[in-house]
Design a protein that fits this description.
Length: about 180
Amino acid sequence: MAKLFTNAQLYQEDEQVFRPNAWFVVANDHIVSRGTNDVPSDFSSLETTDLQDHYVMPSLINTHVHIANRVFPVGANQLIKTDEERIQNGLANLQTLQQNGVAFARALATTNDLDIDIAKRAEQQNLIGLQTAGRAITTVGGHGSKQGIVVATPAEMRAAVRGHFLAGVDNIKLFASGGIAF
């Protein structure tokens, strides 16, 4: 069933501006018609919601998140002791992202491949989509070498990547240098 939304500040992606006094029609979870000012009479019979000059824009995508971490207060990660606590924290982080307009996130490097479990549980709970990477693959003594999978040869790299894909990851996080810390 189609619905009409009026009185919005609608983001116009081609011009990268918000259009005031905008209206749009949603059917099957997609905007099927839109405009500004007067609504065409074709839509007068639709259920209508006045958005009261609120802003409407496409969903956001977070392409680099460490989903199981607790960011605030600083240092609070030391309080998280078990994998289950990290998973629950990750689910809470996904819920916060969703409440703030993010529709999809990509986890990059998670202790003990926890993002795979988080993604499965998020799907069961109808939370936002989460693309996974598992543990980072890193060089000997490189960034993340204490938590990641350390490789020293091309054969070890191929084995690590194959193992990740068999475990169900969606992408590979590679630390190729010493980075900022290890």
